[in-house]
Target: Dephospho-CoA kinase
Amino acid sequence: MIIGLTGGIASGKSLLADDMRSRGLPIIDADAIAREVVEPGKPVYEKIKAFFGARVFHEDGTLDRKALGRIIFADEEKRQWLNSTMHPAISEEMMAKKDALFEQGHHTLVFDIPLLIENNRMNTVDRVLLAYVDEDVQLKRLMERDGSSEEEALDRIRSQMPLKEKKDYADAIVDNNGSRDESSEQLAYILAEWNIDPRKS
Model:
């Protein structure tokens, strides 16, 4: 089985991924792969350089993700270009990792994909698990985490599908408004409901 773990920025998705990893479930992290495909010399890196120019790179030549983020979160057209450039490369790498894990004998794994629903990737997973928080909690946590202004934080939140809308696509939801322990209890219950024993994953 492939579980598609998704959510929104500052929704506690990484918390759930860490919890699932600690239970023994293999995680394929789309964000981690996204960082790999933009390393210097990779084809996606060269395309970004040609499109955005030097303003989104550090002096050492590595990608300045914050500078790039400021541009794309305020410009829908540029965000669409970046997504259409990066997603095929990310998808290819995720599928290769999935095949390798199944060949190693795993029965259950997790695709950690922030834009699972927006990019219509639900057909790549068997179940969708949503990390959910209320919008005021999401805003507060994002400002605290990144030290961003309310306007910057709202730009980032509004660049994504609202979590309330994502509920309609989820097979199960973990409400992350409370404590870590409460979230962990909800996750354990969902895994049991789905007959997933991480020790036999």
